[in-house]
């Protein structure tokens, strides 16, 4: 296969391991250094690249089925060098990537473009230091990490010429019709951040404690190991570890002792420990989490490895010696606790090698209001952890590219980084989705790239895909996206036609809908004609009609909106759904959710001029401060995803900036204080670093400046016609493709905005 990226390199893989579950391999090359060397590589599933012991990269960027983005990495060499590429071939189903045949394709070029080394020049070893038969990490992600190693083996990986005492494997060509893609996203930030030693003490093993159980332990269709096959039962041990006495802080631990390390805020990256084993052997467990779950203020910090339905555990069985240990997969943590179950261990360094979007530092801000500053910083911190190669939902439990989340995180990327490279990569993958029998004909997957195995889908999410493309193209001139995406969009709209009733509205018997995490998603609200779903459907039809020049779709959208109002509006609120009576006539169900009102405002069904009483009710009586047991108890409350955010989105659109600013503080202040990130829910139940929530940065910027949108396609800045909020002095530098947009408010309350050369204002 000819390629602009490779001359001599072929796709190779260890012979006999093509279908091996959770196998890890080390591709090793010793070479003499020279100026200007560059490594081109790609592969399946994923890899870490080390040069002389330094972590250079984790990749590749995830792509659509049989499409592979190629990494191009400059090599800063010494005279003698050892390049190690650790390739993991999971061969299981997950939400994070597609299950494909494993391979590595790598080639080193000189500064003049001459090919010096190719994949076949690498020695390949089975990485038997990583245990293969282990518990899965989560339902959505692949396997956890457990290691058995000695000092000599680890150090040999970083020392040119040293013998590697691991099984040597034969490489064989991989027959493939795959396609190589240029990487769109910038290369991630990899930077060590030290964690502070905050606590030490003793622990015990409580053999009477309940062993944590979860669906990922028993979901065999995902391709997992049965518990009786595990080489180490880290789940049982972690479930029974009980931190007790808090003593003087120390990094020097003996059997039965632990130390807890804390990062300033929750971060995502590769957990990094330097350990010195003083005994002949040692067994160490690392448990980690995003938050202190002990809210009593007494006793040890709460580090709950399963809080996020994940196996937040690393295990190391080590011989005497010095170790520099970096996890293979990225994880999310604020607290890391090191338990020594056997032997004697010293930890001179504990921390994380950050794995983040490198453009997160481009947005610069200062505020006289410390709460606003903390929330903006938390929004940026949340975003950069979720935007390395695709826009993800969370960097911890799933690392999945979910639609709908990206409706919010796409605009956040534009504001925070001054580009939409990660969103474009995400949209390119979807535009090249190929049905392999994992979805109903015409359906687009709810997250991608992935192979989640149960053939589940959410009808609403491809509707948000259409809205996201329209929003992206409102910001950027991109002549390739519409033709790339056309087939998938119209196959989906054809799928929907099968469920249209006499009014053109979607009416489902088998429900595969998602409105939000609240009672709005109860069967009683979803059945029949679900009005929030049809509100988004109408919006998607209108956007598709305008994007592709089909006025009949715009007309159809208008008719659906009119019919929704006729069926759903009860004079006070929009009802959730309509159902058939005994005669087959559609009648209101009587169900009313707060979230349905926000869908109506967000997607063109309602505004404050035409529905003034609804506007006043929603503004004054609903929202985060309502006690739903006392005020309008018949209206079911919203949750963060996505009702609360649609509320903020809608009120910002209507110019209610004082309300938006106040409620952003209400939603986020507690979260920011505890983790420095923004959460999936308004509780600590799940992910505490969720990308859609970074949209708070957009909301705050609009409230303070009126800046709604920066359109790079025509170099315009859309300004709101409504008065902004004076929240004290501030100054911001917002990145654009043409340079920085600067804005602020001085101590006298005067607002100013300065545009880069060539940009102009429009009112919107």
Question: Could you write a compact summary of the structure shown?
Answer:
With 764 residues, the chain is an alpha+beta fold.
Strand residues, percent: 25-35%
Determine the number of helices (DSSP H or I, runs of at least 4 residues).
Answer: 15
- The average pLDDT value, as a whole number, equals 96
The dominant shape is globular
Report the uncertain regions.
none
Radius of gyration, in angstroms, nearest whole number: 27 Å
Terminus-to-terminus distance: 50 Å
Largest sheet: 9 strands, mixed
Q: What is the β-strand count? A: 32
The assigned structural class equals: alpha+beta
Helix content: 10-25%
Report on the structure:
There is one protein chain. This protein is an alpha+beta fold and 764 residues long. The protein is built from 15 helices and 32 strands. Strands 11, 15, 16, 17, 18, 19, 20, 21 and 22 form a nine-stranded mixed β-sheet that branches. A six-stranded antiparallel β-sheet has the order 5-4-7-2-10-12, with no helix packed on it. It has a five-stranded mixed β-sheet with strand order 9-8-3-6-14, with no helix packed on it. α5 (421-431) crosses α7 (481-497). The radius of gyration is 27 Å and the shape is globular. The model has no long low-confidence stretch (mean pLDDT 96).
């Amino acid at each position: 296969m000819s390629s602009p990226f490779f001359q001599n390199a072929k796709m190779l893989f260890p012979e006999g391991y093509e279908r091996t579950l959770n196998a890890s391999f080390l591709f090793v090359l010793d070479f003499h250094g020279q100026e200007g060397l560059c490594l081109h590589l790609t592969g399946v599933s994923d890899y870490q690249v080390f040069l002389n012991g330094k972590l250079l990269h984790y990749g590749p960027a995830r792509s659509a089925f049989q499409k592979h983005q190629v990494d191009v990495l400059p090599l800063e060499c010494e005279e003698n060098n050892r390049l190690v590429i650790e390739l993991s071939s999971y061969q299981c189903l997950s939400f994070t990537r597609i299950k494909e045949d494993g391979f590595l394709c790598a080639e080193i070029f000189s500064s003049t473009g001459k090919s010096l080394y190719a994949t076949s020049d690498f020695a390949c070893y089975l990485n038997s230091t990583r245990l293969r038969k282990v518990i899965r990490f989560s339902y959505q992600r692949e396997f956890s990490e457990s290691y058995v190693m000695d000092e000599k083996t680890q150090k040999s990986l970083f020392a040119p010429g040293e013998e590697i005492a691991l099984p040597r494997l034969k490489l064989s060509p991989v027959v493939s019709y795959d396609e190589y893609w240029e990487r769109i996203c910038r290369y991630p930030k990899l930077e060590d951040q030290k964690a502070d030693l905050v606590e030490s003490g003793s622990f015990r093993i409580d053999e009477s404690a309940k062993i944590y159980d979860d669906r990922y332990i028993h979901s065999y269709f995902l391709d997992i190991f049965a518990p009786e096959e595990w080489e180490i039962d880290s789940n049982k041990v972690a479930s029974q570890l009980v931190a007790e006495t808090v003593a003087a802080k120390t990094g020097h631990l003996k059997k039965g002792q632990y130390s807890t390390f804390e990062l300033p805020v929750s971060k995502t990256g590769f957990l990094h420990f330097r350990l010195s084993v003083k005994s002949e052997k040692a067994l160490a467990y690392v448990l980690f989490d995003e938050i202190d779950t002990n809210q009593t203020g007494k006793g040890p910090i709460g580090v709950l490895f399963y809080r996020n339905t994940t196996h937040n555990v690393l295990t190391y069985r080590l011989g005497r010696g010095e170790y520099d240990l970096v996890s293979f997969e990225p994880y999310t943590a604020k607290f890391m606790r090191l338990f020594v179950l056997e032997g004697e261990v010293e930890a001179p360094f504990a921390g994380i090698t950050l794995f983040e979007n490198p453009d997160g530092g481009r947005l610069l801000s200062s505020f006289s209001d410390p709460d606003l500053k903390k929330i903006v910083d938390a929004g940026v911190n949340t975003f950069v952890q979720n935007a390395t190669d695709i826009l993800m939902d969370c960097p911890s439990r799933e690392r999945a590219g979910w639609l709908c989340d990206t409706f919010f995180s796409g605009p956040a990327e534009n504001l925070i980084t001054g580009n939409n490279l990660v969103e474009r990569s995400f949209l390119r993958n979807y535009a090249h989705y190929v049905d392999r029998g994992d979805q109903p004909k015409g359906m687009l997957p709810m997250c991608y790239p992935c192979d989640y195995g149960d053939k589940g889908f959410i009808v609403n999410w491809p509707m948000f895909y259409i809205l996201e493309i329209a929003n992206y193209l409102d910001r950027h001139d991109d002549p390739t996206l519409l033709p790339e995406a056309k087939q998938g969009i119209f196959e989906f709209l054809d799928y929907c036609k099968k469920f249209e009733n006499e009014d053109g509205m979607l009416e489902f018997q088998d429900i595969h809908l998602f409105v939000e995490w609240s009672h709005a998603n109860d069967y009683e609200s979803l059945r029949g004609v679900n009005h929030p779903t049809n509100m988004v459907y109408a919006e998607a039809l209108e956007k598709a009609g305008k994007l592709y020049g089909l006025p009949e779709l715009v007309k159809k959208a208008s008719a659906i909106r009119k019919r929704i109002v006729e069926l759903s509006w009860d004079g006070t609120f929009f009802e959730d759904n309509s159902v058939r009576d005994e005669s087959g006539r559609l009648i209101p169900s009587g169900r009313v959710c707060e979230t349905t009102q926000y869908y109506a405002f967000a997607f063109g069904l309602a505004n404050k001029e035409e529905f003034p009483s609804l506007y006043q009710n929603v503004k004054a009586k609903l929202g985060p401060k309502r006690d739903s047991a006392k005020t309008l108890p018949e209206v079911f409350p919203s949750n963060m995803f996505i009702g609360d955010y649609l509320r903020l989105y809608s009120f910002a659109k209507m110019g209610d900036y004082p309300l938006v600013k106040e409620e952003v503080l209400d939603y986020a202040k507690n979260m920011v204080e505890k983790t420095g990130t923004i959460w999936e829910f308004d509780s600590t139940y799940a992910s505490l670093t969720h990308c859609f929530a970074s949209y708070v940065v957009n909301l705050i910027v609009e409230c303070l400046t009126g800046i709604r949108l920066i359109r790079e396609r025509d170099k315009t800045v859309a300004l709101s016609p409504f008065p902004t909020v004076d929240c004290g002095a501030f100054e911001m530098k917002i990145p654009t493709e043409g340079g920085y947009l600067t804005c602020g408010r001085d101590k006298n309350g005067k607002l100013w905005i300065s545009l880069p050369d060539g940009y102009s204002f429009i009112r919107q």
